[in-house]
Amino acid sequence: MAHGNGGRRMRELIQSLFLRHLGNPWLTPLTDAAILPHRLPPDHDLAFASDGVTVQPLFFPGGDIGSLAVHGTVNDLAVSGATPLYLSINAFLEEGLPIEQLDRIVGSLATAARANNVHIVAGDTKVLPQGLCDGVYLGVSGIGVRPRGLLLGAERIHAGDAILVSGPVGDHGIAVLLAREAFGLSGSLASDSASVLPLTQSILDLPGLRLMRDPTRGGLATVLHEIAEATGQGIQLDEGQIPIRPAVRSACDMLGYDPLFMACEGRVVAVVSIHDVDDVLRRWRALPQGQEASRIGVVVPDHDQIVVRNAWGGKRVLQPLENDPLPRIC
Amino acid sequence: MAICTESLQHPEAPAARKMARRYELHGPVQGVGFRPFVYRLANTLNLWGHVWNADGRVFIEVEGSIDALQAFAHRLTAEAPTPTQPTIAAIQAIPPTHAPNFTIQPSPTNARLSAAHRFPLDQAMCDACLNEMNNPENRRHGYAFTHCNACGPRYSIMTGLPYDRERTTLAAFPMCAECAAEYGDPANRRFHAQGIGCPSCGPQIHYRSTSGDTIRNPQAALIAALDCLRDGGIVAVRGVGGYHLMADATQDQAVATLRARKRRPDKPLAVMVPWHGKDGLDAVHELAELTECEAEALCRPERPIVLLRSKAKQQASHRLSAQIAPGLHEVGLILPYAPIHHLMLSALDRPLIATSGNISGEPIIINPEDAEAQLAEIADGFLHHDRRIVHPLEDGIYRRIAGRMRPIRLGRGATPLIFDLPQTIETPLLAVGAEQRNTTSLAWRDQLLLSPQLGDLSGFAAQQRFIQQTTELPASVAISARRVCHDRHPDYASTRWAKASGLKCRAVAHHHAHASALCAEKGLVDTDTLIFTWDGTGLGSDDTLWGGETFYGRPGAWRRVASFAPFLMPGGDAAIRSPWRLAQSLAWACGLPWRATTATNEERQLLQTMLERGLNSPPTSSVGRLFDAAAALLRLVENSTHESQAPSRLESVATEATTDSKLYRSEARNAGEMLPVDLPIEQDSDDLLRVDWRPLIRMMTDETRTVAERAADFHHALAHLIHKQVRLLRQTRPIEAVGLCGGVFQNRLLTETAVTLLAADGIEVLLPERLPANDAAISFGQIIEGLVPETNPGRRIL
Ligand SMILES: [Fe+3]
Ligand SMILES: [Mg+2]
Ligand SMILES: [Zn+2]
Ligand SMILES: [Zn+2]
To answer: Where are the active-site residues found (chain B) (predicted)?
Structure first.
């Protein structure tokens, strides 16, 4: 790919590539703004989310940056209780990116959008000098609609509420890490990158649903820390109930990482009243993505930390982490 | 206490008084029957006056004949009840006050005066009480809470200061008429013994089996517990500072059951040995070699666990299961200290495992409810009592190194520990210690108080206890700190607490704290000293992981003069739990073909990629990690289940080699027959000496030599390295004394070899003795570092 500035033919090439994959009535005319028919269902509000997507490598087992970008914003809307309708995509392309790779990425974007019934209605591309954006950066914004009166939020969480997760944690983080570092054993590991819309939609009507989050960067542990901070209450996790694939666990053991801090891209964490736990689990487990859904913990009032209880009753504190953990053992 | 005693009238007339003296005494003189002792002594010598406690000291005013006063001065220290060891800080001549008698004055309770009060320490049952308990004629026959003012619980039951019955958990047990009479009789050895009680008024034991039945009758409760132990069962026994898990140490099956249930496959277990013979040590002699200082330590009122060399041929009657301390040449023995221990061990007449009652990695349990909930799947029965424990205290642990007993852990009977500072500091200072073996220290005015030790703060319960202790310690002496020193490591729970505390924070590099703790203990803050701080991993002032550092300087002004060439720890903490990773990392760094046996090809491949890419593979200069790697290179411990497993095993194997062959005797060394591996030292760009460890790794993988020889040579090479560093550094600076601290120097073979080599050059070696060499000393060192701006460096701190 040649430098983009003023390269008219290149611009045309890129436009045609994007249009070929994403072409739809709103995008195709290449107007400066997409004019969307105002057809909000009654008693609904607009939901608007935005996300920046970077990943290395661009293609990894279980997905690529294209599908990841769609899922990221779809999931942000979904866990807010919304149904996504429209997306905009800004692509920052590094000079020298092979055109076949771009083609695959945009194709994957289109497939993921179609699968989730969302339309990509606006977008832009910029080509940046080599070394500036690591292949591709994608900026994604999304609009959805959400039933008016749906009450979700940390302020609704009470001590005794259950913490549920829709499936095994850590898959995306470890799969991408192993793919990036070119380890020879990513075979059994794939990202969980997927839309969580079916999961979130299936439980929206339950009165005891307090909050949903998608545990992306920083993984399950980081989302739980955010919940604890927002509520001022602690969370006790039951280690044996947290679903983790054996391959994820053994790779994490070897690398010295805690799978609870590894990103997920297709999971939902829900805080639910004790009365609705069984309903959520039943509905989730009926879906292909939710078969390993599990109740992993409980909100507790007596502290404000995340505490993991192991099989023999020992409890460790899960401290928030930002970087690689420094060894603590002296 | 708020009492003023009645007293005996002296037969002698006041006319015989010639002069009066005022004494001020320092030392651990609270709650040990010191004032009653003074009272009796004064009466014996026909002296008038009074004794009182104030400000953590004892003051005495006496008047009488010159001869009597001279005798008093002598006998005051010579005959003081153990372990008071009072020192006379001041003697002053005062005008006689013509007091009508000798009295004990009440303790002042106001906050300012109580600020510096000594914390009375828990003490093992004394001989007199033991005799009473064993005497069928005595009203305390078989009573498990028989104490006097020279023995029994103190800090463990204390709810406030000063130490008086109303501020202990015995306040819940009103004295019967007989006990009250003893308590009020100045001639009785239970005169003002706050722990006084008897079967009709005091605490009692009871037993609860896993079937849920409670046996309230004390005799029946004891019998049920003993039956359970005889049958190979495990009993949780509530003692002084918390619960023990006890089991028959002679039954392999009982030990195996305990190990399986406690998920503690390898960690050595402490053994409580029956009290036999005149000095109580006969049964210990059957199990272990015993030197004089070790015997003294075992019998101290503190009554700690002492690590002793196991006897190869134990007498059949008391043979310990081989699973007590698998693969180690030492065993930790302890004598009974609570009356209940004496009752149990004399009835069973066999050694019992006495390991902390806790879930592995968690703090010791103190309450019956917690014991039954948390130990439900470990214990077959619970021998409870109803005297509440306020402060959890584990048994202390000591080891003889270089001829002296050195604490590995300070516990019951030794903590809280008080140091005197030589000068007053203006703002009280708190220090919150390290992550493991956490202690808290508080310095205010001219005092330093060091808390009992907690375990690993990554555990929730340990963290809760840490917060409680760190809050309580200043409150108990009515001090609020405004500054706090913490470790430089950002992820330690103690660091997080400090940063959230609102106090003014000061971060101290881990090994600077180690070095300063040793200097302060030895009173060397005004001269430059060379200190080796060898331990596991801690964060250095350059934010890399240190652990093999040599410093020159003094507290607050350390210069790092030598270290080890850094090596990579693939997986961070995971590399510490699996020493094979370290071994593999080091072997590859030397281009050696060594392969860990427990790792799969896939794991090794992953490890290689991690190292190549620097993925979660922090560099370190830690000698502790070299020990871990060495144990794995010899295939002694490739994966460890407890933290000191690898170095302990390596030392044991090496010690056998050193003892069994002439190879490592000094004559052989002198004759040049055995030259230890020489480690090259090079100056790096920062004027820092860097040790090249590669010859050590090559030697460790030389399969033409026996495992034991290599293990021994490893120790000797490192001892010689210390010697070599000192000789090198001595060329450019004056060095008369060399300090060795950090967890690595709990290794006797290494430490004693180094001491021998340095002593031959006329160098004095400083080893920690009041505080452990390990991270328990970190909070103390942090205080010393924190004092520096306020302290005149020309003065000695201790
Ligand atoms: Fe240390
Ligand atoms: Mg997101
Ligand atoms: Zn006694
Ligand atoms: Zn009584």
So the answer is: 35, 53
